[in-house]
Write a structure and sequence with these properties.
- The protein has two helices and two strands; from the N terminus they run αββα.
- A hairpin with a 2-residue loop joins strand 1 and strand 2.
- It is mainly alpha-helical.
- The protein has one domain.
- Helix content is 50%, strand content 6%.
- The relative contact order is 0.13.
- It is globular, with a radius of gyration of 13 Å.
- Helix 1 runs parallel beside helix 2.
- The longest helix has 21 residues.
- A two-stranded antiparallel ribbon has the order 1-2.
Length: 70
């Protein structure tokens, strides 16, 4: 069970890092994104979402290889 959780956390971290990089966010303070915890990445992503225009399609970033629901 521990391995499944660890993989899920790492997958979520990578997704958030990709989304932050898409908006030219590479660091928080003096730390690179890959040095941040999942909680810190989620907080940074949430802050970025709050400052975006509601019609900017911010949340519509598509990750390659991810299938869409129909």
């Amino acid at each position: 069970m521990g391995e499944i959780l660890r993989n899920a956390v790492e997958k979520r971290r990578q997704m958030l890092i990709n989304k932050l990089i898409a908006f030219q966010t590479y660091k928080k303070d003096d730390k690179h994104l890959f040095e941040l915890s999942l909680t810190e990445l989620e907080r940074e992503y949430s802050m970025l979402k709050q400052h975006c225009h509601p019609h900017s399609n911010f949340d519509s970033i598509k990750i390659p290889g991810k299938k869409r629901r129909k």
